[in-house]
Amino acid sequence: MMENKKKPNPIDIHVGSRIRLRRTMLGMSQEKLGESLGITFQQIQKYEKGTNRVGASRLQNISSILNVPVSFFFEDAPGEQADAQAGFAEASSSNYVVDFLSSSEGLQLNRAFVKIGDPKVRRKLVDLVKALAAEAELE
């Protein structure tokens, strides 16, 4: 890395990681997102790494394509917590979600779960997983 290169801004890194998180949740490739925006997948990679900053209008387009509000990309952003205690709890819980959705099983589970249209079936599935987790804790 060249000496005169600046390190990416933590907010740009965070926004990029949230773009990647949402894109992978939807099972969308970098190529497909780039195509929808009229840019290359390499540009998407740079956004996701935080190497390149995402402009406001481009972020608006991305939020529309990925079907989330623009605020989604700033949730749990560094330095945004008002209360330090709550902030740490929030950060660790959101990291847990990111880690889960970055895993193969987490992605498969999420993709299958969002295809379930019936809210009662979803609820029963959540209850089943909670019961299994409680059982595992007892072992």
Short description:
The chain has 139 residues and is mainly alpha-helical.
| Secondary-structure element order, N to C | HHHHHHH
Distance between the termini: 49 Å
Determine the structural class based on helices, strands and strand pairing. Answer: mainly alpha
The overall strand count is 0
Helical run tally: 7
Low-pLDDT segments, ≥5 res: 82-87
Helical fraction equals: 55-70%
Described by strand count, sense and barrel closure, the largest sheet is: none
% residues in beta strands: under 5%
What is the number of domains?
2
Q: Kindly report the oligomeric state of this protein.
A: single chain
Backbone CA Rg: 18 Å
Describe it:
The chain is an all-alpha fold. It folds into two domains: 102 residues, lambda repressor-like DNA-binding domains (434 Repressor (Amino-terminal Domain)); 34 residues, no CATH class. Helix content is 67%, strand content 0%. It is built from seven helices and no strands. Helix 1 packs across helix 3, helix 2 crosses helix 3 and helix 5 packs across helix 6. It is elongated and about 50 Å long. Pfam families: HTH_3 (PF01381). This is Transcriptional regulator with XRE-family HTH domain. InterPro entries: Cro/C1-type_HTH, Lambda_DNA-bd_dom_sf. GO terms for molecular function: DNA binding.
Give the secondary structure arrangement, pairings included.
Blueprint: H1 10-25, H2 30-37, H3 41-49, H4 56-65, H5 84-102, H6 104-114, H7 119-138
Helix pairs in contact: 1-3, 2-3, 5-6
Domain HTH cro/C1-type: 19-73
InterPro entries: Cro/C1-type_HTH, Lambda_DNA-bd_dom_sf
GO molecular function: DNA binding
